[in-house]
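Encode chain A's predicted structure.
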Amino acid sequence: MRHRAWLGILAASLIPFVLTLGNSMMVPVVPVMQSAFGVSRTAASLLITAYSVIAVVLMPVAGFVSDRVSRRRLAMAALALAAVGGGIAAVGASAAHSYAWVLAGRVVQGVGAAFSMPLALPLAGDLADPRGRGRAAGFTEVGNTVGKLVSPLLGALLATWAFFAPFWAVFALCGTLAAAIAWMIPGERHPAPRAKRPTGWRRAFREHASLLGATYLSGAVCMLCLFGGLVNLSEALADSAHVPEWQNGLLLSIPQAMLCLASLVMGLFADRWKAPVRAAIWLGLGWTAASFGAAGTFQHMTYQITAVSLGAFGIGTAVTAIDARLATALSRDVRGSLSSLYTSARFLGPTLGPPLASWLQRFGPGAPYMTLGAFALAAALTSGALLWRSARNHEPASSERQPAHT
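Encoded structure for chain A:
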């Protein structure tokens, strides 16, 4: 693959990395902001929830728009908007000392994130040649998982200097990446025929119905299990094992590191394992189901951490395989619309997973793991059936040969 194309794929992979940092860095700062602004815990948590809810709602719109305009220009504009949102929140926290300003900045940042996060996968698919498309899509997942790994540590480190420092970091990172995309991603050369676009996604949805159903379901359940499992493990470490906060964060980085490792391995070999990429989706979910089921039976924290980490490896395998499959199966003119629905479905995980895990704890310490494991098993069986149906029906894969529409 051309060196210039890989520069663009690197830039596309940095989009989820930067945006994941922009949200997850705020988690360690929530208690500090609660006391600094004199607001309730719910109001402080709203600074994170508002970002996620806006992203879930607007991501499908962003994907639809990206199939009709230059994805490169849309990414630059959306990241610039996210930078503006970070700047508003930073000024509100550091100068105005206003919770309303910070919340407004987070809303603006959420809109910018919603219009840029879904572009990573289609951009990588556009820039890669057909033989390297699965690997390119896998690298976008690596960027996402690495962001999840380092963001709590970076957020806590910045917060030791000032609680508003993460907001300034968002401003700097998003602004820098917007400028970098202008240089690293080549401009549009051969746009898809506009006359075919209004009906193209409907036809593609019918052609790939089984594949899309499997990937949307699997992506949502994977993130539900990841965030629900991490929250349950974190609370168990704090309440049962009485682990200090800083040690809690380090221990939680072990499952995140396993997630990164799985994404990296699957991303490197996605284009070499043609048929097994489909199998990796339901096998990863099955592995997660078994690992979380085991975690629900263990009382010792070492065994729980090990089981959740193994489950995270299964999640990383499944979601990276999904990225690779979507990038290779969907044609360029519908890749943004249909992959954005997958990205939006994944955001249901951090939105619903933590409260679900907290609610299930009333039924026993192992109840969250067992329930999440049951969800993963059901998703593995369902997605396996849908993917088998997809292979049997020979759903057409993307056969585009044109240069990227960016």
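DSSP finds 16 helices and no strands in the chain.
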